[in-house]
Amino acid sequence: MVRDGYFYAIAFIAAGLLLGWFTAPAWAIIPFLLAAFFLWFFRDPQRAIPQDPGAVVSPGDGKVTDVSAIQQNGQQQTRISIFLSVFDVHVNRSPISGVVRDVQYQRGKFLDARTPNCAELNEQNIVTVEGDDGQRVVFKQIAGLLARRIVFTPKTGDHLQRGQRVGLIKFGSRVDVIVPGSARTNVKIGDRVQGGASVLAFTQVQGALAAAGNATERSSR
Length: 221
Hints:
This protein has helices spanning 3-22, 29-41, 118-121, 205-220; strands at residues 55-57, 62-72, 75-84, 91-93, 98-106, 124-131, 136-143, 150-152, 159-160, 165-169, 173-180, 184-185, 192-193, 199-202. The chain has 221 residues and is of the alpha+beta class. The chain has 2 domains: 3-41; 55-201, Distorted Sandwich (Glucose Permease (Domain IIA)). It has an 8-stranded antiparallel beta sheet, with no helix packed on it. The protein has a 3-stranded antiparallel beta sheet with strand order 1-14-12, with no helix packed on it. Strands 4-10-8 form a 3-stranded antiparallel beta sheet, with no helix packed on it. The protein is elongated, with a radius of gyration of 20 Å. The termini are far apart.
């Protein structure tokens, strides 16, 4: 459970008790239901983190809404977009193990997170992680129509583990993961994914390791 859930829940429980005391007990039902909702919304379940070489895991729970090739800094990249509804777990996780090289907070609009141009126009946090294999992966925490706060706790220079909790976006949002164009995608539009547990793509290091293993096997014969 994210501690924010307790703050919201305590406030609504207190409001419910006051309403029940000074008015009719029935008026306390709505604040109590809202308290239960916030405890549920800020849930933080344990996840089994894949250990496959080169795996890029999802930063959040939700539905894959886009898998497309893009150009970034003159290089071919693949962008995977995931929409988080108000019913999804909103804790965000690091897609790979590596060092945080850059964190940029970009102010902007609060368009519906399912609109195509929200990745450029909406308020967002852009994080670049350089993997232990040298590959760089960018992931964005993008605010949506209801989201009004993005939380990211690590700092530039921190080392993250794949699937490590790094923050959250409050109340409906989107996360984008941008991987090298050489990466092999492992999801398609419409797939449901879980933060830290679902593999979105494999960087080329997996193929390199497999090739090295085959070469070693051949040489040992």
